[in-house]
Amino acid sequence: MLTYELEFRQMALSKKSLFQIITTALVLLLFYLIYLDVRITNSFSDNLWEIPARVYARPLEIYPGLSLTSSDLSRELEWLGYKKVTNLNKPGETFRKGNFHGIYARGFNFSDENEISRKVNIRIKDGFITELSSRGENIELMRLDPLEIGAIYPAHGEDRLLLRLDNVPPTLINGLLAIEDQGFENHLGFSFKGIFRALIQNLSSGKVVSGGSTITQQLVKNYYLTPERTFFRKINELLMAILLELHYTKPQILENYLNEIYLGQDGRRAIHGFGLAAKHYFNKPLVQLGLHEQALLIGMIKGPSFYNPKNNKDRAINRRNLVLDEMEEFGVITIEEALVAKSMPLQLNFSSRRSGNFPAYLNLVHRQLSLEYRERDLTSLGLRIFTNFDPILQKKLEQSTSTILGKLPESDDLETGSIVTKVDTGEVVALVGGRTSGYAGFNRALDARRPAGSLLKPAVYLAALEEPSQYTLATLIDDVPLTVKGPGGRLWKPRNFDRKTRGKVPLRQGLSQSLNLATARLGMTVGLDKLLDVLHRLGIDQLVPQVPSLTLGSGEYSPYTMAKVYQSIASGGFQLPLRSIREIVDSKGKPLRRFPLTYDRTFNLSTMHLLQYVLREAVRTGTGKSVYYTLDKDFDVAGKTGTTNDGRDSWFAGFSGDLLAVTWIGRDDNGITGLTGATGALRIWTEFMHTAARRPLIYRMPEGVEVHWVNEYTSTVTDDSCENSVLLPFISGTQPAQYRSCKKNDPTKKSWFQSLFGR
Predict the structure, then answer these.
(1) Is 682 exposed, middle or buried (0-12, 13-18, 19+ CB in 10 A)?
(2) I want to staple 644 with a disulfide (CB 3.0 to 4.6 A). Which of 206, 446, 451, 632 is the partner?
């Protein structure tokens, strides 16, 4: 009896223990399910991914009268991935016959207005658009879709272009479901049939080789879990898939899958989603993919590296054709459509200018963005950054740089930095950070700080010309030896480049001929305090050494800084911020920030006009005269050479009517180059302007300025026929008071300045 009671008690205790164990297990499972549920619902939303900020070039705006060559238009279309055809059938196609271009424009959603997709006819004559029409009607203006020049990626390197389900071709959706998850519309996140099939395969192989995953399970695995093949991870995947299905609709799950799936690698950048994959492999939007291209992407899901069409062409074609066969078997496409698609070549189109090939310019954009945006915002919010970058001008700058550097002696160790802006707006349109285009290293255009030498001399003459009662272009100044005691009692003894002196010289000649002695004496007379003020108003916001050698360009400056200086000069005395960014738009297309043109007048227009005259003269008859070995004599430009001690730095800064460019050449180790401004940087500048500049510098004499004939050696007003007479501009009332007539010697004589008036 006692034994029976003991056995009964033990059985009761065992049942109680078992109940407690089961209850505890269920409670733990419940808590674990709650944990998984919270994890899913807190992250599965429109902010599911960190979306990089995408950076775009300026859209090419086309209108009648635009200065644009056929070759430049063709190059732009090539970069944008437009396919050359004989007949236009779909967006993203183009053909050319001579100077006639047919384009099936893709369209683009700009923040201010949507550019529609349409067929456009363009005719070009003598480098200008003469016809712009669509369906027989003239068009006043159209914009091509902008070139994506880069992105600001999150640290993990993932990249994607977000898709909405209604922008995905139905054949791709139906083909995807036929290949990856035939029961997607009906299951609750998992498929018993798939699990059973995978179980058989795993048992037969003795290890986990297949998971039988549905699309929902694949999404959970890709976004929430690790790729390891373990039992515990598989259970997690199953539970989370069920929870996902309970909370979200089938379209939501499918849309997120289309954006999440991994489809290859581009260097360090991971290609996620069908949207980015279409651009990466075919350089066109997903909606424009043909059936054979859609099938290739579907097939790559099984193994993006194994079936990579770039590296494994035959393997990729076989996989694509298998997908097409299965799509036909499940009724997604017809037999005829499958046969046509299988006969197509791969037709890959990796863009010749893929995202990230303009690191120097992107570096500038990133710096300007960082002043207002956190790094996390730039790498996660899907911002669209529209810039002023001009790929046509960038290419010409790169080609000019490469051509000239290749011709210079002992050029292997030479480096360079250049920046190009629009004269009227200060928009930065092109930038070279080194001799190797596409190199993402040290950005010399922004960060190389080198003595500017004679490039800063215009500031000295501007400081003098702001005192018109004392200085005019005809004022005689001394070009004779000079000794100045500097800091610490050190003596500073500048010399002219040719080691010669010239005595009395006209003020304008001191700058156009880049005379060190005349400039240094003038600068010391005007005063260093005045010179520092002028430099600040020209745009130099860094600490500048207040020493006598400042008059000849001491201190260290980047090409970017010198571009700010010459932007002020070229604009006629306005300080214009150098702008790389036009507009910032959020992921939904809403404008967040615009960067309108802003300016401050910091110099009198009349005074700046006189300085521009001398800089014109510097390239006509002075140190920059070799410009016109290449440029047309009638194409007016202005600029200044710069050379530092021992020829370590070669500079040139100059501008036409539309473009300003600053170029530096030197060695990273500050070694001797043997180059002057004229023999080095000027050649790159000239080569670029010859191909890029469209508008000469137009002479417009402002109110308050008048011209007079003066004797350049006596600084007296004279007659136009007198020997040594030149026609010079003066601020009204400041011309020399003394008049001296003479006999007519050469009535046919004309100066380059006189020719501006047609006299």
Answers:
(1) buried
(2) 451
The answer to whether residue 384 is domain-embedded is no
Q: Residue 55 domain-assigned?
A: no
Residue percentage of the chain with pLDDT more than 90? 55
Return d(Cα 243, Cα 38) in angstroms, integer: 10
Is pLDDT of 158 > 50?
yes
Q: Is 90 exposed, middle or buried (0-12, 13-18, 19+ CB in 10 A)?
A: middle
The two structure tokens encoding residue 498: 């040719």
In the chain the first and final C-alpha atoms are separated, in Å, by 139
Q: What is the pLDDT of residues 332-383, one digit of tens each?
A: 999 999 999 999 998 887 654 444 578 899 999 988 888 777 777 776 677 8
pLDDT at 5 over 80: no
- The domain containing residue 127 runs over which residues? 60-145
Same-domain pairing of 100 and 37 = no
- CA–CA separation, 320 and 342 (whole Å): 8
572 and 426 part of one domain:
yes
Residues 594 and 448 in one domain: yes
Number of separate helices (H) and strands (E) present in the chain? 23, 32
Which residues, including other chains, have CB under 8 Å from residue 376's CB and lie 6 or more apart? none
Burial of 699 (0-12, 13-18, 19+ CB in 10 A): middle
- Please check whether residues 505 and 534 belong to one and the same domain: yes
Active site (annotated) includes residue 741:
no
Q: Which of 437, 454, 558, 715 does the annotation list as catalytic?
A: 454
Q: Name the burial class of residue 714, with classes exposed (0-12), middle (13-18) and buried (19+) by CB atoms within 10 angstroms of its CB.
A: middle
Range with top average pLDDT, 11-20, 64-73, 347-356: 64-73
Nearest CA to 369 out of 534, 528, 151, 576 is that of: 151
Q: Which residues partner with 711 through β-bridges?
A: 716, 725
Of residues 50, 78, 131, 180, which has the active-site annotation?
Answer: 180
Checking if the pLDDT of 747 tops 50, the result is no
CA gap 644, 435 in Å, rounded: 20
Q: Are residues 281 and 205 in the same domain?
A: yes
User: Could you report the per-residue pLDDT of 599-622, keeping only the tens digit for each?
Assistant: 889 999 999 999 999 999 999 999
Q: Note if 454 is an active site residue.
A: yes
Q: To which residue do tokens 């898709």 refer? A: 163
pTM of the model: 0.80
SS3 content of the chain, % helix, strand, coil (to 5): 40, 20, 40
Residues in the chain: 759
Q: How many structural domains compose the chain?
A: 6
- The Cα–Cα gap between 324 and 341 comes to 8
